[in-house]
Amino acid sequence: MITRVHALALALALPAGLFLAPALARADVIVTNTIETATGTDPTYIVTAAQSFTTGTQSENLSGVTVVLDGEFGDSSVAFSLSSNSGGLPGTQLLVFDPLTPIFGSGFDDYTLSSGGSLTLAPDTTYWLVATYLGVDPVWGYTDSSAFSGSGSLGSWTNATGLILPNWALPASEKPYLMEIDGSPVSAPEPATLALFGLGLVGVGLSRRRLTR
User: Fold this and answer.
1) Which residues contact 198 (CB under 8 A, 6 or more apart)?
2) Is the pTM of this model over 0.85?
3) Mean pLDDT, rounded, for 116-137
4) Residue 157: which domain range?
5) What does the DSSP assignment read for 99-143?
6) Alpha-carbon separation of residue 83 from 24, 86, 119, 131 (angstroms)
7) CA 200 from chain center: how many Å?
8) CATH code at position 90
9) Is the same domain home to 109 and 180?
10) Distance from C-alpha of 17 to C-alpha of 112, rounded to nearest angstrom
11) At 67, is the secondary structure helix, strand, or coil?
12) Which of 28, 45, 63, 121 is the most exposed place for a label (fewest CB within 10 A)?
């Protein structure tokens, strides 16, 4: 026999089930090559650069972006954005990150990008991380290595000398740019969560039924 205490306990399972689902989501490295050695930056006539990547087999909420920047020049800021793929080149801008300036004299170091927006990345889809140099010198580091890791893959890279209508280089010059793209998988509720949700509904129903008697 289900008592009022049991009914209330079942009712409490409802919010518990609702909050369990987000906790089950785990961070995922979509693609990274930041452990590779930085070997240089673009020449000064380059004003924008881009590196592509392709997601893995599941949808993911973008949770973090890290880039390797050169702090040798103190007056060189950079603004990053994330764009769609259009014919193998950067397409529509999807998300804009806050501009940042590398710490002067620090050499190559990791910097985490921040944004007030959010973006869900589709599975098996190519995107571009695009850098726009706001100072005199390009600061995004590249590497001689083609190695990478993650659930997705690292793609091609390109750069340009124009901002309004970028004349993206074909084929792209220099080497792969250094970056890490992190995501949080978008998944359906776990079976345990669905079971708790169902028990919660039963508990609420029994509790209300007893209270009306």
Assistant:
1) none
2) no
3) 95
4) 28-185
5) PB-PPTT--EEEEE---S---EEPTT-EEEEEEEE-SSS--B-EE
6) 29, 9, 11, 11
7) 34
8) 2.60.120.820
9) yes
10) 33
11) strand
12) 45
